[in-house]
Amino acid sequence: MSFWEALAIAIAGLGAGAINAVVGSGTLITFPTLIALGYPPVLANVSNTVGLAPGSAAAAWAYRRELAGQGARLRRLCVFSTVGAVIGALLLLTLPAGAFRAIVPALIGIALLLVIFQPRLTAAIAARREMPHHGGAALAVGVLGTGIYGGYFGAAQGVLLMGLLGTLLADDLQVLNGVKNVLAFTANAVAALVFIGIEDIDWKIAGLIAAGSIVGAFGGASIARKLPPTVLRGIIVTIGTVAIVRLLA
Q1: 65 Rama class: left (phi>0) / alpha (psi -120 to 50) / beta
Q2: For residue 30, what pLDDT is reported?
C-alpha cells in the first residue's frame, strides 16, 4: 500500500464517518474507494465493515444526550439488529456475489418514500390509534431486516432505519437519529465480529478507515444535531438518492 493509497482510504473513512453520523451511506464512500484501488470485493467489504464499526460507536456516543430515556427501547431493538447482522454476515460469506445487492436499490427507494411522507404517515397513524412506545411488531421486523442488510453490505442502512423509525415512532427526529446510530453500530459491530472470526481482514485498510471514521463521526454528529427536521430529512433523501444511483451504476 502506497502513501497516497493510505491517504485516500483514510479520507474516505473520514467522509464515511461524518455521513454515517448524519444519516448513513458511508459505505458508498469507502467501499467504492477500495474497489477503485484494486482490492477484491469481499475483502474490501469485510475490511470496510470492521473499519467503520469504531466510527459507528463514536456516532452513537456523540448522540448520548438525545438517547436519554431510550434504554428499554434500544435493548429490545438491538436484539433484532444483532440477529439480523449475524444472518446478513453469514449470507455474505455463503451466497454468490450480487445475489442480495439486486434488491438494494428498491429497499433504499422504499426508505426514501417513508422519509418523505413520514410526517403525514405518522399523523395518520396517530389519528387512528395510540402509537406504541416500542414501535410494535412492524418495527421489530423492520430492524431485523435492516440488520440483515447491514450485515451483508450496509450502504444506506441508516436511510432504511430512519425511514422505519420516523414512520413508526412519534419521537423527535434528532432522538430517532441517535437510535439509528446505536442500531447501525450494533449491526456493524456484530458483522465485524463474525468476519474477524471467519474471513481474512486487511487490518491496514480497517485501521485507516477506523481512524478516519471516528474523527468524521464526531464532526458529523455535531453538524446533524443543529439541523432542523426539514433540512435533516432533505439530506437523508439526497444521500439516499445518490446511493441508489451509485448502486445502479
Answers
A1: alpha
A2: 85
Q: What is the 3-state secondary structure (H, E, C) of 86-138?
A: HHHHHHHHHCCCCCCHHHHHHHHHHHHHHHHCHHHHHHHHHHHCCCCCCCHHH
Model pLDDT for residues 1-35, shown as the tens digit of each residue: 888 899 999 988 888 888 777 766 778 788 888 88
Burial profile 100-136: b = 16 or more Cβ within 10 angstroms, e = fewer: beeebbebbeebbebbbebeebbeeeeeeeeeeeebe
Q: How many Å apart are CA 98 and CA 216, to the nearest integer?
A: 29
Query: Would you give the end-to-end CA distance of the chain in angstroms?
Result: 27
Cα–Cα distance for residue pair 209/50, rounded to 1 Å: 9
Contacts of 227 (CB under 8 A, 6+ apart): 22, 235
Q: How confident is the model at residue 129 (pLDDT cuts 50, 70, 90)?
A: very low
Q: What is the dihedral of CA 81, 48, 44, 187, to 10 degrees?
A: 0
Integer Cα distance of 94 and 75 in angstroms: 29
Q: Where are the domains of the chain?
A: 3-248
Q: What is the pTM of this model?
A: 0.79
In tens, the pLDDT along 39-79 reads 887 888 889 989 998 888 888 888 888 888 878 888 989 99
Q: Which three cell numbers stand for residue 242?
A: 445518490
The x, y and z cell numbers of residue 82, run together, are: 444483532
Give the cell for residue 247. Answer: 448502486
Q: What pLDDT does residue 42 have?
A: 81
Q: How far apart are CA 91 and CA 199, in angstroms?
A: 13
Are 24 and 225 spatial neighbours (Cβ–Cβ below 8 Å)?
no
